[in-house]
Each structure stands twice: as structure tokens, then as C-alpha cells.
Amino acid sequence: MTELRLSAFGPHRAASFELGPATLFAGASGSGKSQALAAYEALAALGSGRTLDEVFPDPTARVPERARADADGRRGFRFGCTVDGPVGPVRLDLAVQAEPVLRIAGERLTQGDRVLLNTAQRDPRRRSVEAAWLTGGAIGMTRAPLPDDRLGTALLPLRVAGATAGQRCVLAAAEQVVVALRSVFPCDPRPERMRAPVPTGAGRLRRDCGNLADVLRRTRDECGTRHALLAGAARTGCAGPVVELAVRGPGGPGGGLVTALLERGPDRPATDLGRLGAGELRFLALALVLLTGPGVLAVDPAAELLSARQALTVLADGFDRDLDRSQSAELLRLALLSGARGHIRLVASVGERTAATARGVSGVSVVDLSP
């Protein structure tokens, strides 16, 4: 995703944000940092096939505060994105009715000046939208109803045969958008959930990073290079000497509890992760996220692409919460390191101190939302 558009979403009006390998939203409280990330996450969830009810449990929170209802009492919000890839830039724009009933009011998928998919609400009494997608030839457009609670773009592979050049164009653009939207990992590390030993499992990191110890076990056993990079980061972000990130417990999934600890060196006792501060735990979790990818993080990988070719976007609201300046700087370095390899993109909200440091870092884009 190269652009996030918030036409009317929360506090944002006619806003457009370019997204790079590392994009940080900064600004005062209430400026809309969290709303911007919520919009990105909502697009990702809709692209994965979730319904509007699942994605927007409180849809009125996304309606602009001064938005007026029309004669039928309808209010809503509008947002979208641009996804670049093999077929070039493709735009997705979405209008959602939040009141009186949550539903998609309109969706448009475009490539340049060409409309590939367009939907509109024709009959408020029906729970569907009238969709038209490019067919080409004598037919021009194919028209059919689609559900009004799901992203039409994500449904196109089930409805479009790909028998004509126009249909193949639609499918290629829709696939590009859906793959990009699905390749997202919203991350909110919770230190209080990382302190206790955890059962061994598949070693896929959850959103709250509560199974951090089990994932460290997996990276230690399966990827020595990444584990060494993580141990090196721990030397920067954790207090005191760190020789190694070790794991105590079973050597594989399927039983028992596992605990992670910092080895301090000869004649020094190791430190259980449960004894670390909140900032150190958040740092370790975020460093692990930035150094791994779809095979380790708990995301639904895009089967259309090989894992080595997938770029995962990490969403982190309050990225620098509980972190000191050196920890934040090290995480940005790791984000750029993984970004240069094409593995990870970072979209996060940060405080002013981190934003001030990041403004001088090549490759990091800071979006200032202050009025």
C-alpha cells in the first residue's frame, strides 16, 4: 500500500498520506494518529473477508463529528487506499453507512481512468449493493448484486470467470489489492502477558505477543541468523550485559511450558523475562516482529505469493510507548534493515520525541498531524 486516503474518517477530512518503508504518524493527542492506523487495519480486515460488523463494532466512532445526517437519517464515513504492484497503481475507495444501519454504501476499484468495479446502494430495503465490473467487448460491464456487509473487491475472484481480457484485468487488480491488504500484522505488545511461562505451540507470534517465549524458542531452533540479530538488539535495548537470548523448557511444540531469559555471562545469573521492565519487554517483542515475517507472525499468509516475496506491513499504535530514546532508535534501525530486504514495512504512531529523532533518519517518513 503506497497511499492511505481518509476522505471523511474520524477527525480526518480530505486527507491523503503517502506510505513508505517506515511511516510514523505524529501529533498531539486527538490529532487522529490512532484513527489513521484504525483505518488501515479496517481495510486489512475487510480484505481478509471479515464483515463490517466484525471490523466496526462501534461504527459511529469513525463518523466525522460534524457530519450531518441526510433526509433519511444516514451518516457514514469514507476511506480508501492505493496499492502498487505488477499491474501498476490500483485505487480502492469505500463509502460506509454507519447509521441507521451499518452497510457498504459504495465501493470503487479503479486503475488510471478505468473503472474496474463500481457498487452502489439502489434499494435501502435490500441487504445488497448493485455491482458492475469490467467485462470488455460487446458486453462492457457485468452487473450483479453483492452483499452489503463485505468488501466487493475481495469477492471478485469468486464471481469473475476471467474469460475475457477485461475480466482478467479486474482479477489481476483485485488480487493485487487483496494480497496487500491481507499482508498486515497489527501489533500491540502487552508486557503483562509476556511474564509467565507459556505452553509450547506452533511458535506463531500473537498480536499481544503474550507467547513471546515460545516464538523465541522457535527462532532459536529454526533460524540462527535472525536469533543472533535479535540477541544483538537485546544488547542495545535491555539494561545490563546480554550474552544470549536463551529459552528454558521443552525443545519443540507439543507439551510443557517454556520460559525465555537473558543470559548475562560467566558468573552472572540469567534474568527471566518476567523480571524485565515493561519497556524492555515491549522492545524485545517489537524487535522480534520486525526481524521475522509471515511464517512466524500470526497472520493469514497470501497463498498467491511465495513467502520470500511477501512484504508484511506491521501496524503499531503507540509504537514507542514505555521505550526510551535508544530503544526507539534501535527499533527504527531494525525496521529499515528489514525494509531494505523487502520483508517488512512499518506504519506506526509515535510521540514527539521519537518523531523528532526520526525526522533526521533517511528512509523514515514522519507524518505530522498537528494542526
Q: How do the helices and strands line up, and which of them pair or pack?
A:
Layout: E1 3-9, E2 12-18, E3 22-26, H1 33-47, H2 52-55, E4 75-83, E5 90-99, E6 103-111, E7 114-120, E8 128-136, E9 140-147, H3 152-159, H4 165-182, E10 184-186, E11 198-199, H5 212-222, H6 224-237, E12 244-248, E13 257-263, E14 271-272, H7 278-291, E15 312-316, H8 325-340, E16 344-349, H9 352-358, E17 364-368
In short:
By secondary structure, this protein is of the alpha+beta class.
List keywords for this structure.
five-stranded parallel β-sheet; 9 helices; eight-stranded antiparallel β-sheet; single chain; 371 residues; alpha+beta
Total count of helical runs of at least 4 residues: 9
What's the shape? Answer: elongated
How many runs of DSSP E, i.e. beta strands?
17
The average pLDDT value, as a whole number, equals 91
**End-to-end gap:** 25 Å
Q: What is the string of SSEs from the N terminus onward?
A: EEEHHEEEEEEHHEEHHEEEHEHEHE
**Beta-sheet strand percentage?**
25-35%
Strand order of the largest sheet: 2-1-4-5-6-7-8-9
- Which range best describes the helical content: under 10%, 10-25%, 25-40%, 40-55%, 55-70% or over 70%? 25-40%
Radius of gyration of CA atoms, rounded to a whole number: 22 Å
Instruction: Let me know the largest β-sheet.
Output: 8 strands, antiparallel
Taking pLDDT < 50 over at least 5 consecutive residues as the criterion, the unreliable ranges are 301-308
Strand pairing plus helix content: what structural class?
alpha+beta
